[in-house]
Design brief:
By secondary structure, this protein is α+β, with helices and mostly antiparallel strands. A 3-stranded antiparallel β-sheet has the order 3-2-4, with no helix packed on it. A two-stranded antiparallel sheet has the order 1-5. It is built from 5 helices and 5 strands, in the order βββββααααα. Helix 1 packs antiparallel against helix 2 and helix 2 crosses helix 3.
Length: about 160
């Protein structure tokens, strides 16, 4: 069997080390890419951030991506929460949408961050409402959204 290592991730979601226990020389208080503080634990429940899944005797070449949510308490990690806020702010700038459409679009983005039975419907609504947005703001929203949604939602959008 295997076990998760602890990861160190900056508040913006950049991975510092996916095997913090085995790489103490890589750890840092601040991110070299953006300067944000780094964390090893969930700010809500203090559970370690799941890093690389280590299986003795097995070598993996897969790339590590920090999780969006804590496995222990389900809270969004800071990088997920900030991207969702950025998406909401961009939606608020869409003058082409009514207030109800803006609410639906915000809800759709949030639903696409989790694999649930609502993901497919949320993806359909997102595509429909994104089509009403201007190209510049639509491109920006799509960029932020794709950085935080699940792989299943990404497949539905492409």
């Amino acid at each position: 069997m295997g076990a998760y290592c602890t990861a160190q991730v900056c508040l913006n979601g950049h991975c510092i080390a996916s095997m913090a226990e085995d790489s103490p020389g890589l750890l840092s208080k601040y991110c070299g890419q953006c300067g944000a503080a780094t964390i090893l634990k969930c700010p809500s429940c203090q559970a370690g951030i799941r890093g690389y899944f280590y299986v003795p005797g097995v070598i993996s070449i897969s790339e590590y991506h920090p999780p969006s949510f804590c496995f222990s308490c389900g809270s969004a990690f800071p990088w997920t929460a900030s991207r969702l806020r950025a998406a909401e702010d961009l939606v608020d700038e869409m003058d082409e949408l009514s207030d109800d459409e803006k609410r639906t679009l915000k809800q759709s983005v949030a639903e696409m961050t989790r694999d649930t039975s609502a993901t497919e419907l949320a993806s359909v609504r997102y595509k429909k409402l994104l089509g009403k947005a201007g190209k510049g703001i639509g491109t920006a929203l799509n960029s932020v959204t794709v950085s935080v949604i699940t792989e299943a939602a990404k497949r539905l959008l492409l």
